[in-house]
Amino acid sequence: MSAPSTDIVVSPGSPVLAAGHDYTTVTDKITSVVLQRKSGLPWRLAFAIALLLVMVLTTAVSYLFLRGVGIWGIDIPVAWGFAIINFVWWIGIGHAGTFISAMLYLMRQDWRTSINRFAEAMTLFAVACAGMFPLLHLGRPWEFFWLLPYPNTMWLWPQFRSPLVWDVFAVSTYATISLVFWYVGLIPDLATMRDKAKPSLARTLYAWFALGWRGSARHWQRYQMAYLLLAGLAAPLVVSVHSVVGMDFAAAQLPGWHSTIFPPYFVAGAIFSGFAMVLTLAIPLRWAYGLQDFITIRHLENCAKLMLVTGLIVAYGYAAEAFYGWLSGNEFEMYMNVNRAVGNYHLTYWVLIFCNVIAPQFLWFRAVRRNVWLLFIMSLIVQVGMWMERFVIIVTSLQRDFLPSSWGMYYPTFWDYATLFGTVGFFSLCFLIFVRILPAISISEMRELVHKEAA
Amino acid sequence: MNLPHPTYGLLAEFDSADRLIEAARKTRDAGYLRIDALSPFPLPELDEALHLPRTRVPMIFLIGGICGGLFGFFMQVYSCVFSYPINVGGRPHYSWPAFIPITFELTILAAGLCGAFGMLILNGLPQHYHPLFNVPQFDLASQNRFFLLIESGDSKFQPNGTGEFLRSLGPISVSEVPR
Question: Which spans in A68-156 are helix H?
Fold first, then answer.
């Protein structure tokens, strides 16, 4: 019945899509991942591990509610430990999703099409993980709504001049807009799922969330405009979110934090780690579901190139920090730089330099960029490096501030690690469920791409 | 006399986007006004073929953004200047540059929410029942087929003549859309 129309087939030489695909094959291949294929052993194994880690997380959080933040290693002077490191790390990872879906859309980069859906899902799950940490760090997490401006019997308002309050608005706006953008993008695909699924509860749910989408030209016109404008809003939003996170630090007087380079350098670092996470997810995803036709080596190579560029900006940030520390002639700033390199936590600093500055230089070589295994390893190295960066910024600055009488050490506890790895499990669990229930690649945009690449 | 027509309209099925665009153009030129084209991905050429007016979606974004921004800014002014003034190192209460980040965030938030929901409302979604879903092959409209609909409410609509006309455009099939 649905014989493929002969004239609309992707021609050989298309860098973003394997040759020979038409509307039908693209649609069938992506929907079959959810509708036909069994989950398979690798998926079940990953799911089991992720579920185990989520149990670790719930235990750690329950114990935290019971005993308070004293179960973590934080103390004076290092009051911002793993919670803030993990917050900044997770929210940074999310940024590449928005970068791919919004900025590359505005720049008409066709190769974003097959990776934007799961990159946006990655953003949502990463922001969910990030959002947990400041709340858990509050001490009394059940009073979290005190962060929001609302008429209250205490007659109090949040301090609107503080970057920490800006963060509440930035992160909650970011989470909301990312969700809306993702859902709007999903509507036509949910309609496809509705039409392809056999009658079942799943089909009813797809139909429900597809809102009765029927692909009318009038609808597409408004839809395309709304999608474009949402991309236009999300692009500056993503820059603002990590800039505000950077200002959380830059507004303090502490050596190593009080620097105007923080907002741009944080944004670059965020996208750097985010592209690493995109690769970490894309490489197993295309392998497990045979999606090499859609997520081609060209996609991986482009992600690697962006990782290299943002990595160089981050390296410039490190160099500028050290240089301005020296140029300032301020003994505290100079000591901060020395302390990072040879102080108590020098190991984390050198791991950071290796992971974020030295290792990415291999991405200059085309052979490395096109080697799936090396890229996967590289993506893990970068994520470790970016976590170390946040550790170095937060801990080394806090543990040695102006007065030696207020110097101290920070030792993370078992519960710190349990919470960190617990959120890794939570993130993985969300992602594993996502690939089984929703199309991981935007089908309608892929059909549009087929149309374009055949023309 | 003004009983509604027993069918909702006639639906022609095409196998390529170009044929749909051409058919839409011809149908519009033939004087049909209550027509719609349905495709599995957006075809900007249809806007011109169907003479669609410019969409009002950008205006909703703009108005939402302006309202969100004004609300965000004046909420902070009200809090910091009138309701709860705190002297921080002698700085002015009306320290507007510090209010910009939250103003910006609320501008984006309100614009995005108004725009996304506005788009759905203008499209009349959610609308889970539509006569088109009664046509069996319409399932393919979200997959690989392209459809052109002429509603029976069109003043030029004639059950036989319109069917003939649609068949002359080279479709795979023409079917009635039951109500």
Answer: 82-98, 104-106, 113-136
